[in-house]
Amino acid sequence: MDQAESLRRMLAPRVTRRIAVVASERGAGATTIALGLSHALAMQGERVLLADEDNAGHAVRLSGAEPAGTLADVLAGRMTLETALGARPASAVVVLPAGKAQQHGAPSADPLSGFRTVLVDAATDGDGALSPLAGAAHNVLVVMRPELASITAAYACIKRLHHLYACRDFHLVVNMAANETTVQAITGNLARTGRQYLGVEIGCAGWLPADPLVTRSVELGRCAVEAYPAAPATTGLRRIASGIGAWPLRAEPAASAAHAAVAA
């Protein structure tokens, strides 16, 4: 990081930033982005938690984690964070399955306060709604591909989340893009449409090229950023991560955000 970036991060509010990573449609690559950004942020010196809402647990598997519990268990006070982590590789990135929301007695302290960033590899229900944890995030990152069907799905996703959660700011990552010119055209059109018809701001967080090393890392059961530090996709993820600190924080919801994941 250069000096200006280091100074900006030191002066940034010391809050635990929560980011919901949402796929525009199945296969967009949200898990790749969520896990890759977790490792890219850790390379910048952050302690990061990634909550995996995928029932198949792809992010947990690719991270090499062997959790004994879920984030819901921790937020509900049923077990400590250290107990829930179980056996895990030494890393600044903590990966836990999100678990299911239940009624509970909340722990006395916020178990997420030790993390600079919490990312949620978000799942949606049949109506396109997010979990309480993802719905209470400070930032929404929509992952899409440079194809017409994905562009249409990304706009529909943004429209739905705006109506459900009154989100006004969205960030886009274009995955498997050919070049920056294509990305700028796609995100520029979405930004203009969103501003005109929804009154929302849609910004381009960055893009990733189609990188065979990402596919290879999945075959190896690894995160691409960890397995291939010099890969083109890793460079793209690190560039996105370096800009996250400048994203505006969405106002806290009325309920306690620390326990939103396990609200009834």
TrEMBL record:
<dbReference type="InterPro" id="IPR002586">
    <property type="entry name" value="CobQ/CobB/MinD/ParA_Nub-bd_dom"/>
</dbReference>
<feature type="domain" description="CobQ/CobB/MinD/ParA nucleotide binding">
    <location>
        <begin position="19"/>
        <end position="199"/>
    </location>
</feature>
<keyword id="KW-0547">Nucleotide-binding</keyword>
<dbReference type="InterPro" id="IPR027417">
    <property type="entry name" value="P-loop_NTPase"/>
</dbReference>
<keyword id="KW-0067">ATP-binding</keyword>
<dbReference type="InterPro" id="IPR050625">
    <property type="entry name" value="ParA/MinD_ATPase"/>
</dbReference>
<protein>
    <submittedName>
        <fullName>Flagellum site-determining protein YlxH</fullName>
    </submittedName>
</protein>
<dbReference type="Pfam" id="PF01656">
    <property type="entry name" value="CbiA"/>
</dbReference>
